[in-house]
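Appendix B. Raw example, untouched.
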Amino acid sequence: MKGHIPVLHVSERLLPQAWEKSVLSAWQNGIEIETEYDRPNDPPSKDCTMIITVKEPFAEPRIHRSFPAKLEDLEIYRLEVVNGIHDNRVGEGRWPYSYHQRLFSYADEIDQLSYVVRRLAKTPYTRRAQAITWIPVQDLHSDEPPCLQRLHFRVLPGNDGLVLSMNAHWRSRDAFKAAFMNMWALTDLQRAVAEQLQNQIKQPVYSGGYMDISDSYHIYGKDWKEFEKFLSSVRTRPFDKRTWTTSFAAPFFEKAREAK
């Protein structure tokens, strides 16, 4: 319908399946729209609101070969989000923020994820286990405000322990060039929260489903030529040739950790 932003939903078992399907859905069903980053003569972007459900985010294969970076870059990004290896760049004024800094040291003082773990340990069924990134006094005037807005956690009984699910809410998202790396890192953060909760309550806690909601899930018009290579891969290569397992990537990740 003219004037309406399409709301799309994809649901898959595996992380790379869900990302691939979401990008294709945005390409096929998104609206054409300009962006604040367009250069003269850039084609319009494809855009939609996207809901992605990953039922088993830690099942293998976990890595899509078409994410636009090296495996070493994927590991460094994970370490940035989960371990905060580049938070010093925020303090030095080189970055306006990092997700780790906003989640673990919000406004330079609040460790929100420690609160999440304590809250879930006390009341597993709580609806208040969340962490936010947006700081209005800073971000309303920033040219680079955070895309990730909020994480929400819930725990339910499983077959042989508790199961921790996580929802990630995004203001804006480059579907093709950023979303897979975001999802990879955040699911590992989900796993870390599950491990911390398990250590605190002294009973098994497993990572469950991951849901990812983007208000603007877009593919930039300037990336069409590169995106065509992704489409060609989907059309011509079987799924096992479009993905890697975590074990395959392990030596590359180790190399990245040694060099960081």
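End of appendix B.
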